[in-house]
Design brief:
single chain; 884 residues; alpha+beta; six-stranded antiparallel beta sheet; 13 helices; 58 strands; 17% helix
């Protein structure tokens, strides 16, 4: 019975009881009393109706807000079979070239998140969508052209009818693109089953010839020649062979490898799939191109299958082609038939993954390991290998398998033999097809696969892989601890509840003692130093506290080493800040403590401070500094501490062998007591899984983060822009911020540029040199502030900008060439020339700089080479800003 129906019944009974009483016992002599009682009944009825209305409003509110909640939704779950891939894959034809396989997403992404490909357009503004064969087909398409920076939609068009047999859809864009400017093409397809599928690529239009076909033809020709040993000499002139490259593996070959390795050494692979060509980055002179395909080759063990990716960065100038970068990765598919009985080892083959986690049960007779997108279980007693989980169906084509944007992490095997593991990334099939998520699973000793929680996130696999911290732990209390996007979570599998332990953490404020299953953090998550440090044991749920020595000092979290935490003491008065805004945090004493908080070692040195540390193995390397004046420090060498190690030998490990044909190959080594009498059998795992019906939506990073896109993928990320820029320059890549803005791009600068609208400001008369520089930048951005006020505050120049701008950027350590990217994009750069002195760079050519020096009148033209040396001698200290 519903609550509303129950209330209606109650009201009816009360009314009937009142009427019956009046009928049986009404007496005119007691009229006044009866009327009074009847009035009370009416009042009671009114109150009951009010209560019913309030209950209805409350129930309705629960229903409405329950529907709106995205953080925790409950259901009973159900048992489902593993399905096959159903979303069609698109390829794009432009300027006569077929490129860019587009894979569908089940929900709309923020358009500027997906950076998987870029499609060059010529004056025809025409592309053709090639629709791949799939279990479903598209019946309608709609596309939008979106501004990459603001997200503004410029144009929307619909292609309403697509026949089931139709394989090509031609699009001619009727939009006035700006030349050499990136746009986002957001394609929405409707499938034959009525599902909405989203596809994304970037567009870049060139009014003039950008030599796209010539760049791509060079890449295709180079790729083809790698399969021909007779072309070794032709390829060699494009390589940059280095003596530091040992040329001992085919798993990772690059431009520094010798021509023999580039042409596959002693192997003769044959391509067995379509070769998917993707344009990763593109501009007038250069192009970044990725090849993605599968090949077979004969090895000493037999025929093996490999997934191969090649990355090319090429430049076309003055009619010539140049190879700027080349990298090829090669991953063998696991084949149990290639196991070695002689050495009792499972063969992994050629691979870059020789350190991923393996787990065994308590009896150490069952081993779990993951290769690619497949989780395996090896029963050593039965000599059987079982597929526990696989991303793709057995019938999946190579076109689907090429998009291997998913990974597996092993977490724990408990005392009952239950394995806990998580899968994260893009899901190519099943009920979550087209989603990007993290899913926690358990696999019982009885062979049941259960989903514990499903956690979607609005990100690509590449970004999630970088944001999803490697460490995760499942405690005996059934709590899963993990970190995504600078937020530390705990998920209670019994209570089905997600909680945040910490938000907006930084690498120097929150750390993991992995060997002890502990988190450690500073009382100040923004600074990394404060009144205390907390060590939290995830297994026991106990906390140990480390405190500062006195009120005049702070305790600073420095790092972790093996099972211990490294911290230091520093005086408040010793903290300093440089002119460009960098902080100096000198510790006068260093300590190493165990997870229980017991001090194991202490280090100090007269007249020296510990500025930073780096932990490698069981050694703590320290960078030292000394005080040379009030709040001024100078580097004073390095020192190290050896930490005692209690690490135990592992029972299961990776081992390598070298053969003349395949070079370095990898195997799983078992304990010496184990003997593999015959080749293991391969068995299939569960055909269905029990879903949880539980999902919690994960959040995007709350603090600024900078991703390095290079070699066709995100290679690393940093919490400050300058480190990301330097690494992107080294890798010939691009820096993208966590809000998906292009921060810096190799070869993205114009050959020359001048910024207008800068008001020349002299120092003197109450205006300091640095204040004058800050004023010129702020005034250029229409920020109303007086130079005299900036001088009176006497702040570092970075802080002057930060007070009025939301996104200033400290570029200390970057080179002049790197920071001129900002000037190329019409953002002036403040460059330090000495202590307390700086200039504003407003323009440049290949040989000159245009600067505003507060000690000189107006703009000056100076030698670029000479000032490059001046900036370098001053420590390469630069400051600029990013768009709001």
């Amino acid at each position: 019975m519903s609550l509303l129906h129950f209330c209606q019944k109650a009201v009816t009974i009360i009314l009937y009881a009142g009427w019956y009483r009046l009928k049986q016992g009404f007496n005119w002599r007691h009229r006044a009393k009866e009327i009074s009682e009847w009035g009370m009944v009416i009042i009671m009825v009114k109150n009951i109706y009010k209560a019913v209305i309030l209950v209805m409003v409350f129930v309705g509110a629960l229903f409405f807000f329950g529907r709106q909640m995205k953080t925790d939704i409950s259901d009973t779950g159900s048992s489902v079979l593993f399905a096959e891939e159903s979303f069609p894959v698109m390829k794009i034809e432009t300027q006569g070239q077929v490129i860019n396989a587009l894979y569908g997403y089940s929900a709309p992404m923020e358009p500027d998140i997906v950076r998987e490909s870029i499609t060059p357009l010529d004056q025809s503004k025409k592309i053709t969508l090639q629709l791949g064969k799939a279990a479903t087909y598209l019946t309608k398409l709609q596309y939008q052209i979106v501004d990459k920076e603001s997200g503004e939609i410029y144009d929307t068009q619909t292609i309403s009818v697509i026949e089931p047999s139709q394989k090509r859809v031609e699009i001619v864009f009727d939009y006035g693109f700006k030349t050499s400017t990136e746009y986002i093409l957001d394609i929405l397809g409707t499938s034959s089953e009525g599902r909405k599928i989203h596809y994304y690529t970037r567009l870049k239009y060139y009014m003039d010839e950008s030599n796209f076909q010539k760049k791509l033809a060079f890449v295709k020709e180079f790729h083809k020649k790698t399969f021909d040993k007779s072309k070794m000499e032709e390829l060699e002139r494009y390589l940059e062979v280095s003596s530091t490259n040992r040329n001992t593996t085919l798993a990772n070959v690059d431009i520094t490898s010798n021509s023999d390795l580039v042409t596959w050494g002693g192997m003769s692979p044959e391509v067995i799939s379509d070769e998917i060509i993707t344009i990763k980055e593109y501009n007038m002179e250069t192009a970044c191109v990725q090849y993605n395909y599968f090949a077979e080759a004969r090895t000493s063990s037999g025929k093996e299958t490999y997934h191969i990716k090649e990355f090319y960065r090429v430049r076309h100038a003055s009619g010539q082609n140049y190879l700027l970068n080349f990298k090829r990765t090669m991953e063998a598919e696991f084949n149990v038939k290639l196991a070695s009985r002689q050495t009792s080892q499972l063969k992994l083959g050629i691979t870059n993954d020789s350190s991923s986690k393996m787990l065994s049960n308590n009896n150490e007779n069952v081993l779990y390991f993951a290769r690619g997108n497949i989780l395996y279980r090896y029963d050593m007693e039965k000599n059987e290998v079982q597929r526990v989980y696989t991303a793709f169906s057995q019938k999946a084509s190579y076109l689907y398998q090429a998009y291997d944007e998913q990974a597996i992490r092993l977490l724990k095997v408990d005392e009952k033999g239950t394995l806990y593991f998580c899968v994260y990334g893009y899901f190519p099939r099943g009920q979550y097809e087209g989603d990007v998520a993290v899913i926690l699973y358990e696999y019982t000793a009885e062979g049941e696969l259960r989903e514990m929680v499903y956690m979607p996130i609005n990100a690509t696999y590449q970004q999630l892989q970088e944001d999803f911290e490697e460490y995760g732990y499942v405690s005996s209390r059934g709590i899963y601890y993990f970190t995504v996007a600078n937020t530390v979570y705990s998920y209670n599998m019994t209570g089905k509840r997600l909680e945040k332990i910490a938000e907006n953490i930084k690498s120097n404020t929150f750390m993991t003692i992995e060997n002890a299953n502990c988190y450690v953090w500073s009382s100040s998550l923004s600074n990394g130093y404060g009144e205390s440090i907390t060590i939290y044991n995830l297994e026991t749920d106990e906390k140990q506290m480390l405190y500062r020595p006195d009120k005049a000092s702070y305790i600073r979290l420095l790092g972790v080493i093996e099972e211990n935490v490294v911290y230091g003491y520093m005086k408040k008065k010793d903290i300093a800040q440089t002119e460009e805004g960098s902080r100096i945090l000198p510790c006068y004493e260093l300590h190493i403590a165990n997870p229980e908080g017991k001090n194991l070692k202490t280090y100090s040195k007269p007249d020296r401070y510990i500025q930073s540390i780096e932990a490698k193995g069981n050694v703590v390397n320290m960078t030292l500094c000394r005080k040379v004046g009030k709040n001024k420090y100078r580097k004073a060498g390095e020192d190290s501490i050896l930490n005692t190690s209690d690490s135990q030998p592992v029972k299961f490990r990776y081992t390598s062998r070298v053969t003349s044909k395949s070079l370095t190959e990898w195997y799983i080594q078992f304990p010496s007591s184990f003997e593999m009498l015959e080749i293991p059998k391969m068995t299939e795992g569960p055909s269905e899984l029990m879903t949880s019906g539980r999902f919690v939506r994960l959040e995007q990073p709350g603090i600024a983060k900078y991703y390095v896109y290079a070699l066709g993928e995100i290679t690393t990320s940093f919490e400050n822009a300058r480190q990301a820029i330097r690494e992107a320059d080294r890798q010939m890549g691009v820096v993208i911020s966590s809000n998906h803005q292009v921060v810096w791009e190799r070869s993205g600068s114009f050959l020359q540029n001048d910024i207008g609208g800068i008001s020349a400001t002299r120092s003197g008369n109450g205006v300091s040199n640095l204040a004058a520089c800050a004023y010129m930048v702020l005034k250029k951005n229409h920020i109303d502030v007086k130079a005299e006020e900036l001088s009176e505050e006497n702040l570092p120049v970075y802080n002057m900008l930060a007070k009025y701008m939301t996104r200033p950027v400290n570029l200390k350590g970057c080179t002049l060439d790197e920071v001129l990217y900002f000037v190329s994009n019409n953002k002036p750069v403040i460059a330090m020339t000495a202590n307390k002195k700086a200039v504003v760079i407003s323009g440049y050519t290949t040989t000159e700089l245009h600067i505003y020096d507060p000690e000189q009148a107006g703009m000056q033209t100076v030698s670029r080479f000479r000032y490059e040396e001046i900036f370098k001698n001053a420590g390469n200290r630069f400051i600029s800003y990013m768009e709001e």
